[in-house]
Fold:
Amino acid sequence: MDSFMNFSSFVLKSDPKQLILIKYNAEVYTTLLQFGQVTRNANWRVYTILDHVLLKIEKLVDEPIWLLLNVNKTDQVAISQLKNIIEKLKKLPVVHSSFRIIIGYSDEVDCSAELINLTSHRFYFSSSMSLAQQTRRILSNLSIRSSLDKSEETQRIQIIRLISFHYGLKLRNQFDSEFNVIVDDADLLAMLKLYQELRNLSEQPNEIQDVMKVKTCVIEPIYYPKTKCPVQKNVITAMVQWIIEANLSIPADTLLKNIIREDNHNFEDFAHFIQSHDESILCGLNARISRECRSHLDKKVISKMRILFEPTVEIQSESRRNPEPRSYLADVENGTREIDGRRLNNITELIVLLKIIFCSKYKMGIAEVMVTADFVNDGYEKPKVTPDSDDPMLKINHCVLTAANFSQGEIRELHNHQRQYVSITLKSSKRTAASNPRSLPLICPTTKHSVAQIPFHSQFPISHFHLRGVFVTLGRTI
Structure:
């Protein structure tokens, strides 16, 4: 019971003087605030300062108002205020038949048993559990529905792609442990509002210009500021290319064509149609990995249920303990040319040291120096270190390659949710203007920033691996 229709029916069946308690997923708070624009039979008002309600309650009960009292904390002060409101409501002789008081609190708020016991009328409003449900909630919002219905066919397809893109980011957050960009209904509503404004101002540009405007004016202001991690930004950019721009040069998964059909311009038909398809493909992972991730999530839910009902069950930790981190700065200064990446947590310091050593040797500024990285192929020979040798390479073993496989000098598609140990070499050189566009980022575990780019060979374009979220990092045990 988490749709607008079910919620409306639930509220209407209650008594005007009966308190209604609603717990909602934090993700849908904005949708809940928009509820007044969805229902035509109620005057929806929201209060977060309970003292104001107590002063106005005698006037409010004469109107057909559904009053949402949003509680941010359930301490004794808030409970006392709510009890005063309830007592005052009970003493009033006349209350409008359509008047309702609804107490709402987020699932992020620690709810006390005292608040729960205030009423037996309770409702839970969850986040959207499917793309169909997400679409129907958007369509039930009368503030944007009228403009959506007036859209041209090409614009309707674009709106469907925008909704699918947003839901794909939600799924990515659930399935990909490396992707922690959190999106909610407020982001989706804001994106659709911006899209409306863009359509109102647009002079029907050509298709390429139109897609670029949607990306720069609608998507980037909302979703890109949510992360500073280069890997996550690459994922978002690739999902825009794949879902919004329908870039067929990204092999990804052709099942996307089965979900978003160019000949389907009706929103209700789309919401009904996608119920029969595996929408998890929208997260940007291939179908096999998506199924594996769903199975893993199901196992975690079952494990939590066993903890609740079988307290004696021993739960094994899923995460393996990483080796004790250490700094290799002194070792590298003293000539060490091979280190263990599992124990290296801050590679940024090491990169800076390599640049300083190079600067001191060739008498140049640190801004003129760059550190390049390369994958180590089979047959690598450790360079000999002599006083007269050129700048020898530093080899780092046991780096972790995520979401791809390195074999015989080539990066390949991974069909399971595993990681792989790889070795890389680092070498300082004079900075050049050109950089290799087909490169994977080397991510520092401490700063989460990309410290070097690793060129690679593959039959797939770089955007494909951006979509999969491929990167190399250190300081982990797999």
The chain has three domains: 4-125, 131-288, 329-473. Confidence is low (pLDDT under 50) at residues 315-319. The longest strand covers residues 419-430.
